[in-house]
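Reading a protein record of the kind used here takes only a little practice. Each token is a code from a learned vocabulary of local backbone shapes. With that in mind, consider the following protein and its fold in token form:
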Amino acid sequence: MRCRLFCGFALVLGAMQAGAAFAQAYPAKPLRLILNVTSGAVGDVVMRSAAQELARQMGQPWVVENQGGGNFVIGANACKRAAPDGYTVCMTNLAAMSLNPFVVSGLSYDPEKDFTPITNLFSQMTGLVAGGSVPANSVAELQALAVAKPGTLNFGTLGVASNADILRAWLGERWKTSMIGVPYKGMPPIVNDLLSGQIHVSWTAIGAAASHARAGKLKILVINTVVRAKRLPDVPTFEEAGLSEYPGLVWWGMVGPAGIAEPIVRRINAEVVRLFKDAKFGEFLDAQFVEPLAGTPEQFAAFMKMDRERVGQLVKKINIPRQ
């Protein structure tokens, strides 16, 4: 009996010590960071800078790999297929983890079973942005224009049933009109076509639109924040514009393939949280119009579950068909 107890304790202690030693030796080679966005997107800008800082903190390069497009399915699949050895981590977001399970037929990954939660990263300030030549300077004026000319306004999206496309459908239902969804593979080409007048409006990252708005080339009509942004004091919030029923939080997080050893998850988490709580890096994030959200793996897992339930209710309410 004593032997069984002692031997069992020794095995557990040995496993703990081995895990701790492994975590201390980690990383022994470069890490691969899969980004589920195209080059130049706000998330790409943020995480490339983060990768440089994390490389300095951990003593190994972080090699960035863009796997954007496909309504974020491409990046999720690349992450799912990676070896769970702790040397591949991936950026994920609301669309990949909360929205796609309800709108993509035959989804090739399970958001709960195929990934290891590491940490939430940041929320991204987004908003309705119109081209400079669009005769609307507020949400109310955009509504009046859409109602007066149904089916004539081109609304840039990241594909059918993407975040922006759902907002387009929601606004159309609310305003009893329609706007044409125009799909793109990434946010930078959306902004380019807003500037050129190829499309009239989109729901886009404010970090990608702010400089153009300051130059008078784009119009930020509303943002998805609780209070007005210090950098955009004249732009109303969703609530002020009468759109409070729409859940506008756009979040980004970090996961790995399922099965990464817990000591490695803890090490990566600690390094990312340390960076995202750094004052200097926080200033950089603020300049990109994003807010840090880094926390524990458990908090992130619970957050994703709650968010998936929230988005599922919205999809059901708007009656968005699976694609």
